[in-house]
Automatic annotation (TrEMBL):
Name of encoding gene: siaT_3
Primary residence: membrane
Name assigned to this protein: TRAP transporter large permease protein
Keywords, in A-Z order: Cell inner membrane, Cell membrane, Membrane, Transmembrane, Transmembrane helix, Transport
Role: Part of the tripartite ATP-independent periplasmic (TRAP) transport system.
Origin organism lineage: Bacteria, Pseudomonadati, Pseudomonadota, Alphaproteobacteria, Rhodobacterales
Organism: Jannaschia aquimarina
TM ranges: 6-39, 60-86, 106-131, 152-179, 185-211, 232-254, 260-278, 290-313, 333-361, 373-401, 413-441
Amino acid sequence: MDGGTIGLVAFAAVIGLLAIRVPIAFALAGVAAMGSFVLFAFRTGDFTPLRALRPTVSMIFSNSFDLIHSYDLSMIPLFVALGHIAYRADITTKIYYAARVWLARVPGGVAMASVMGCGGFSAITGSSIACASTMGRICSPEMLRMGYDKRLATASVAAGGTLGSLIPPSVLFIIYGIFTETSISSLFLAGILPGLLSLLGFLLVIGIWVWRDPDAAPTPDETTTLRDRARAAWAAWPAVLLFVIIVGGIYGGIFTATEAAAVCVVAAVLIGFAQRRLTLRSLLEAGRETAIQTASIFLIAAAAKIFVAFIALTGVAPEIVGAVTAAQPSPVLLMLAIALIYLLLGMFLDPIGIMVLTLPLMIPLVESYGFDLIWFGVVVIKLLEIGLITPPVGLNVFVIANVVGRDVPLDRIFAGILRFLTVDVLVLLAIMAFPVISLLIPYSM
């Protein structure tokens, strides 16, 4: 049987399994194992299953072993642990409270503070869903209590939560860097300007929304003194310190991304105990949640590595590259087609699933056009970020809907999300049209 045909059938099988909600790790590993077995069995022309068993088992175990023993992969549990520890030490929410005090009298100030809090949370944790879940419990109920428009109170946090995908550190950037063999430190730095651009765009959406409809965000009847603002700003210094260690350390060449993660974990623990906001029990609980989340990510990554190796055996990637090259689409048309594929998949699949499913085909294709893989990584992560709030399966939207319960119907949250999606698309087009937005900081190192 032709390898290219087996590869295409495997892709269709994975998409079908994911559509019926089979866990992505089992879908990828299962299809890769069966596809490799069939491929090896037909190697001599006739179907000889006994000859296929040993090479299939060897391919599965060797690829999963190599991935798990990757040095770069060690930063995933470190950054995951950093997020859980910083949350329990009350470090991640201080940026929101500081912005809340400074923007108290600004129309829509609480919504803006929520977005800024999401940005600060993302600069430490690297997880969009964790950001939306945590900030949603804090911000959305407060805005609803103050009389904010239900769409604004929920959509602003759902959209702000997506910043965890772009603002470093980002788990998605780590996985992309491992599978494309690009510098994860450079990817982190490349996400800074696009992440800040997205954050400013969200703030602009809130400002225009409240300007056109003042009733959407009642201004609270409270006064804050300069002393209150100074005290709130000072309380956020641990979060600022951790962000400076990560970005400044990587940019200055002091740390690798893994070393920066380890230093920040130690710093967060010391700060938490010094401020008496972290206990031994909460530290152990953070370790337990880190182990569970890391095991899930590692399982998906190992299955993806097996699937990538299987796709390489089929030779389907060179065939697709050859077919696209023969069609001679312009670089602009190619990128628009890739963006459309990711946006469509983002409506139904989770970000990690989309990435590991598409990278085996996309990377050879963009390399054949001479595109910069760091810039392309930022484009991919931005597309995945958009998918987190795109109906019908916007994961961040469902997270916020679970937080607010019956107070805000799901369709109302999606109605508010449309305004933020418009800005997301504009930022995406800017990143695609002007690669310097992504490459300025990493290439200035």
